[in-house]
Amino acid sequence: MDNPVIMPHSSDNARMETAWDSIIIGGGAAGLMCAITAGQRGRKVLVIEHAERIGKKILMSGGGRCNFTNTGTTPAQYLSANPHFCKSALARYTPADFIAMVERHGIAYHEKELGQLFCDESGKQIVRMLADECEWAGVTIQTGCTVQSLRREDSGDFVLETSQGRQTCASLVVASGGLSIPRMGATGFGFDLARQFGHAVLPTRSGLVPLTLSGIHLERVADLSGLSLPVQARATGPAFRNAMLLTHRGLSGPAILQVSSYWREGEPLHIDLLPGKDALDLLQHWQHQRRNAQLQTLLAEVLPKRFAQRLCEHWLDSRPMRQYTPKELTTVADTLRKWPINASGTEGYRTAEVTLGGVDTDGLSSSTMMSRTVPGLSFIGEVVDVTGWLGGYNFQWAWASGHAAGMVV
C-alpha cells in the first residue's frame, strides 16, 4: 500500500480537488483511530487538522505521559443523556485492544492507580504510534487546514471548501472535539456542523474542572494553596475517593475534578475529610485514650497540620478532648464527615479537561456512530454527548468510537 502524504499548510497544494472515500475532520485521538481503522479496510482516507500538528491533546494529557486508557473501563464510568449509547462501541474495542497496539510498537507503560495506564516516557510515543499506523494504512493527513464551508450534494457526496482547496468524499466523520482548553484551538465547530445538518446538540458545560470558591469560603483557605489531602467527595452522583488540592481560586485535585462533572451551580458538595475512617469512633477513642490532648493536635495526626489548624480556627472549637459532651463530639464528627464548604462555580473551559453534553446520541447509531438522518455523516469522540471520568476513560471512548466509525465509513 502506498505511504500517506502528510500535507502541511502550503500554497503548493491550494485549490486541489480530490475524491476521498472518507474525510475525517480532526486529527486527535478519535479522528486518528477512525482513520487507521478505515485505512486498514482499504479506504482512501483524508484527515483534516486545523492545528499545525496532530494529537495536541494527547501530548498534554497525563502530565505529558498520556493516560491512554483504563483497564477497568465499563459503561458505568460515562455520563450521557443516554447511558446505554456507549456500550456497543466500548464492547467492540476494549482497553486490551489498544494495549495490544501499544505493546506492538514497543511502548513501555505502567499502571499509576485505579487501572490508569501511562507511558513510561512520553505521550509523544502515542502520537508517533498513531501517525505510523496512519502511514501504514495509507492515510493522508493535512495539518494547518481549516474548513471554510461544507455542503452535501444531491448525489450524497460531501463537498468541503478548505484553506488548502476543495475536497469531496462519500463519508464525512466529525472528530473535532469539544470546547475545553480553547488555548489549544478548541472551538464549537463540530456542534455548529451538527446543527447545520439537523442534529440536536445538548447543552454543554465544562467537566473534569477545578471548582471555585468565593466570599468567606475562599478567604478561609486561599492561603493554603498547594496543600493536598485525601478525601471522599460527592455531588449528586457517585462518591470519589482521591486527593483534593487547595488552590488560590478554590478546590482541585482528582477527587474534585471527578465531582465537577456531576456538580451544578447552587448544589452542595459533600466532602469527607477522613475517608475510610469512622469520625465519631475516632473522636470517642481519643476522648477515652487521650483525654488531655487538644482536638487540633490530634487532627494534625490524621490531616495536614495547617489544614487541621484552619479547621479549628473557623469550623471547630479546639479544646482538650475531655471537655466535649457526646452531642458536641457528634457535631465535630459531622463537620469532618461533611466539611461545610460551598463551591461558587468552576474555572470553565479554560482549564476543563472535557466538555459535557454535545451532539445528541438519539440521532446517531450506537454501533456505527453514523447519523440516523444524514447517510455518510458520523460524529465521534468528545463532540458526542458521552463523557468519561478522569483516568483514561475519555481516551478509551475516543479509541472505541473512532474504531466503530472506521469500520463502516
Assign an overall shape: elongated
Our Rg estimate from Cα atoms comes to 25 Å
- In what range is the share of β-strand residues? 15-25%
Helix share of residues? Answer: 25-40%
Features of this protein?
single chain; alpha+beta; six-stranded antiparallel beta sheet; 13 helices; disordered N terminus
Present the secondary structure layout.
Layout: E1 6-7, E2 16-25, H1 29-40, E3 45-49, H2 56-60, E4 67-70, E5 78-79, H3 87-92, H4 95-104, E6 109-111, E7 116-119, H5 124-136, E8 140-143, E9 147-152, E10 158-162, E11 165-174, H6 189-196, E12 201-207, E13 211-212, H7 215-221, E14 228-234, E15 240-246, E16 250-252, H8 254-260, E17 270-272, H9 279-289, H10 295-299, H11 305-314, H12 326-337, E18 345-346, E19 354-359, E20 377-379, E21 387-388, H13 393-406
Parallel strand pairs: 1-8, 2-3, 2-11, 3-8, 11-20
Antiparallel strand pairs: 4-7, 5-21, 6-7, 9-10, 10-11, 12-19, 13-16, 13-18, 14-15, 14-17, 15-16
Helix pairs in contact: 1-5, 1-13, 9-12
Overall description:
The protein is α+β, with helices and mostly antiparallel strands and 409 residues long. It is built from 13 helices and 21 strands. The protein has helices spanning 29-40, 56-60, 87-92, 95-104, 124-136, 189-196, 215-221, 254-260, 279-289, 295-299, 305-314, 326-337, 393-406; strands at 6-7, 16-25, 45-49, 67-70, 78-79, 109-111, 116-119, 140-143, 147-152, 158-162, 165-174, 201-207, 211-212, 228-234, 240-246, 250-252, 270-272, 345-346, 354-359, 377-379, 387-388. Strands 1, 2, 3, 8, 9, 10, 11 and 20 form an 8-stranded mixed beta sheet that branches.
